[in-house]
């Protein structure tokens, strides 16, 4: 999964954190609230871990529960990203990504059906 940014902004890639780091990853940013299982911090090569831009524990639990709905999850997560402390953390992440190539890392098995696309949209707005 690759996010296209405007020509004045660097490209942001999305990869699973379990993949080996690549020389062209740029700044490696973990965008999960919980540390990935079975991965040491030394092996992850994480440059930033802005937990405040990730879905809250409550939202994450709801999304993985029996009553979850992706459209509703998106709506709730977008709302979270517009409140503090997430809004400030989102702005800091925009600034970090503006400094050069970057890779958002996640442990989710299906990044395209997770919080990651929502986060990318908010970063581009």
TrEMBL record:
It comes from the Bacteria. PANTHER family: CYTOPLASMIC PROTEIN, CYTOPLASMIC PROTEIN-RELATED. This is DUF488 family protein.
